[in-house]
Specification:
Bound molecules: NADP nicotinamide-adenine-dinucleotide phosphate
Distance between the termini: 51 Å
Radius of gyration: 24 Å
Number of strands: 21
CATH superfamily of the largest domain: Aldehyde Dehydrogenase, Chain A, domain 1
Oligomer: single chain
Shape: globular
Structural class: alpha/beta
CATH class of the largest domain: Alpha Beta
CATH architecture of the largest domain: 3-Layer(aba) Sandwich
Length: about 500
C-alpha cells in the first residue's frame, strides 16, 4: 500500500503540507496516490540519522554489508507485480522494460555484494619499510580506502529503478559503507516508495543501523538544495539535466566544506559514418539507427542525437532512408507531460535554426506521445551554431553533412564532452581511422565501433561518464563495479602497528 510518506530512517513520516501526485502519461491523468513533500525538519532528521548510522555502518563487516545488498535485491523481487504495475503507471514505459530494469537493478545489487567478497576494489598498495636505506630510511606505507560519509542520491526520471531509489548510485554507495539519503524523483514517487520500503525491510532484517537509508519525497528543488548544503552530507550522486546537475555542483562548491558532485547529465552521443559504410551498408545502418534513436522513446542518455558524415550522394540517401524509416515506427509515450513539452520545445528550437531542414514526415501523435524526427544541416552551420549541439531529450537526431574530413575532425574537436561516440566503418577503412579515433576519444567516455550507443552493459570494463557536460568528473564511471570509487577516498598508514591496520593491509 502506498502511504505517500517519506522514509526517515525506518519510520514513515509526513508532517508537511505540500502534496503532489504522479501522472500516468499514457492516460494523461493524475494517479490516485498523494505524496507529501518532506519538511526541513524531516530532511535534517534523515541526515542526522545517516551521520550517526555512518559511525556503525562503516565498520560493519563486508560480508554483512553484502547480506544487506542481497536482502534488498530479494525484497525488490518480492514486490512482484505491484512494482511493475506502479512503474508502468508512473512512467508510461512498457512491462517488458519494467521487468528488464528490475532485473538490472537486482543484478547491480548482487554484483556489488559479490564485489565485497574480495579486497580488489580497495586500491590496496603496500610499500614495506627499508630501515637501512640511505641517506634516509624508508617508512612502511600502506594504502587503502575509506567511505566518504552520507551520500545524497538524486534518482533519474528515465530509469525509475536502475538509476533511482535503489539504483547504481545507491547500491554502490551502500556497498562501500556510505549511508544514503535519496531525494525521491517526483515523477515516480510511488515506485520510489515501494523500493524504499524494500530497502528499509532489508536493513531491519539484516541488522543495519537505522539511518543507513532514508527516502525524502519532494516536488521542487528545495529538498535537494537543503540536502546538498547540509554539512553532514559528504557526496552527491545525480542523473538528469545539465541545468540541474550544474546547479547542484555550484551549490556544493559554495559550501564551507565543498563536496564532490558526481552528476551524469546531457549528451548527444556523436556517430561518425564513413563513405564506405554508407556505400556498402547504408540501408542496414539507417534501419538500425531508426531503432536506436526511438528506443525507449529516445529517453536514454546514450541516445544518438548527432550523426556525422562527409557530403555525398550516399549520405543523402542514408539520411532520407533514416527519415523514412523512423516515421514507420509507432510513436511512443514519453515519461511525463513536462518531458514531452521539453522535447517539443527543444526540437523546435533546434529545427528552427538557420540551415536546418527536417526530413521526416510530420506525425500526428496523442497527448504525451513523441513525434520522432530526423533533421539535417551543413557542417559549417553546425560548427558556427552551438544551439545545434544541445540535447533534444527524445527520439530526435540531426545528420551533419561535412564538407570534408578536415571539417568532420574540426566538429569532433569542438564538441562538448559526451558519454559516448560511435564509429561506423568497413574493414577497409581501418588504416585511415586513427585520427578520427584519436579526436573522438578526447571528447567521449566510451567509444563504440559498428554498433549503437544505446544499451549500457554493467561490468567492470564499462565506463559511463565523460568530459563535461556529460558528467561533472570525467575520471569516474557511474556504471559498473568501478563506480564505487566515487564514494571512497584514499588513506595511507605510515609505520602503523599491524593490530591497528585494517584487514586488507595486514601482513599475510
Ligand atoms: P532534472 O530536471 O535535472 O531533475 C532531476 C532531479 O534533480 C529532480 O529530482 C529534480 O527535482 C532535481 N533538481 C533539478 N534541478 C535542481 C536544482 N537546481 N536544485 C535541486 N534539485 C534539482 O531532470 P528530469 O526531471 O529527470 O528531466 C528533465 C530534463 O532533464 C529532461 O527533459 C531531459 O532534458 C533531461 N534529462 C536528461 C537525462 C540524460 O540522461 N541525459 C536524463 C534525464 C533527464 P524536482 O524535479 O523535484 O525539481
Amino acid at each position: 500500500m502506498i502511504t505517500g510518506k517519506s522514509y526517515i530512517g525506518f519510520s514513515q513520516q509526513s508532517s508537511g503540507s505540500t502534496t503532489y501526485k504522479t501522472i500516468n502519461p499514457k492516460l494523461n491523468l493524475e494517479n490516485e496516490w498523494v505524496f507529501t513533500e518532506a519538511t526541513s525538519e524531516e530532511i535534517d532528521e534523515a541526515i542526522n540519522m545517516a551521520w550517526i548510522a555512518f559511525k556503525a555502518y562503516r565498520n560493519i563487516s563486508e560480508s554483512d554489508r553484502a547480506k544487506f545488498l542481497n536482502a534488498i535485491a530479494d525484497e525488490i523481487e518480492a514486490l512482484g507485480d505491484d512494482l511493475v504495475q506502479m512503474y508502468c503507471a508512473e512512467s508510461g514505459l512498457p512491462e517488458g522494460r519494467a521487468n528488464g530494469e528490475r532485473n538490472r537493478t537486482v543484478f547491480q545489487l548482487r554484483s556489488f555484494a559479490e564485489m565485497l567478497q574480495s579486497d580488489d576494489w580497495k586500491q590496496v598498495s603496500i610499500d614495506t619499510a627499508i630501515p637501512d636505506r640511505t641517506p634516509a630510511p624508508k617508512p612502511d606505507l600502506r594504502r587503502s580506502v575509506l567511505p566518504l560519509g552520507p551520500v545524497a542520491v538524486f534518482g533519474s526520471s528515465n530509469f525509475p529503478l536502475a538509476y533511482s531509489t535503489a539504483g547504481g548510485d545507491t547500491a554502490s554507495a551502500l556497498a562501500v559503507g556510505c549511508p544514503v539519503v535519496v531525494k525521491s524523483h517526483p515523477m515516480h514517487a510511488g515506485t520510489g516508495e515501494l523500493i524504499a520500503g524494500a530497502i528499509v525491510r532489508a536493513a531491519q532484517a539484516t541488522g543495519m543501523p537505522e539511518g543507513v537509508f532514508s527516502n525524502l519525497n519532494s516536488k521542487g528543488i528545495e529538498v535537494g538544495q537543503r540536502l546538498v548544503k547540509h554539512p553532514k552530507i559528504k557526496a552527491v550522486g545525480f542523473t538528469g539535466s545539465i541545468r540541474g546537475g550544474r546547479a547542484l555542483l555550484d551549490l556544493a562548491a559554495q559550501r564551507t566544506e565543498p563536496i564532490p558532485v558526481f552528476a551524469e547529465m546531457g549528451s548527444i552521443n556523436p556517430v561518425v559514418i564513413t563513405q564506405n559504410a554508407l556505400e556498402y551498408n547504408g540501408s542496414k545502418w539507417a534501419e538500425t539507427y531508426a531503432g536506436s534513436i526511438t528506443l525507449g522513446t529516445g529517453q536514454f542518455c546514450t541516445n544518438p542525437g548527432l550523426i556525422l558524415g562527409i557530403k555525398s550522394r550516399e549520405l543523402t540517401s542514408f539520411t532520407e532512408e533514416l527519415a523514412e524509416k523512423i516515421v514507420t515506427i509507432d510513436p511512443m509515450v514519453m515519461l511525463h507531460p513536462n518531458i514531452k513539452s521539453a522535447y517539443g520545445r527543444m526540437k523546435s528550437e533546434v529545427t528552427g535554426q538557420s540551415g536546418v531542414s527536417v526530413l521526416s514526415a510530420p506525425l500526428e501523435v496523442e497527448t504525451n506521445y513523441a513525434d520522432q524526427a530526423v533533421a539535417t544541416v551543413d557542417g559549417s552551420a553546425f560548427l558556427s551554431n552551438p544551439k545545434l549541439h544541445t540535447e533534444v531529450f527524445g527520439p530526435f537526431s540531426i545528420v551533419v553533412q561535412c564538407e570534408d574530413e578536415a571539417q568532420l575532425l574540426e566538429i569532433i574537436e569542438n564538441l562538448e564532452g559526451q558519454l559516448t561516440g560511435t564509429i561506423i566503418a568497413e574493414d577497409s577503412d581501418l588504416p585511415n581511422l586513427h585520427t578520427i579515433v584519436d579526436e573522438m576519444r578526447q571528447r567521449v567516455g566510451r567509444l563504440i565501433f559498428n554498433g549503437v550507443p544505446t544499451g549500457v552493459e554493467v561490468c567492470p570494463s564499462m565506463n559511463h561518464g565523460g568530459p563535461y557536460p556529460s558528467s561533472t568528473d570525467p575520471r569516474f564511471t557511474a556504471v559498473g563495479m568501478h563506480s564505487v570509487r566515487r564514494w571512497v577516498r584514499l588513506i595511507s598508514y605510515q609505520n602503523m602497528p599491524e593490530s591497528l591496520l585494517p584487514n586488507e593491509l595486514q601482513n599475510g
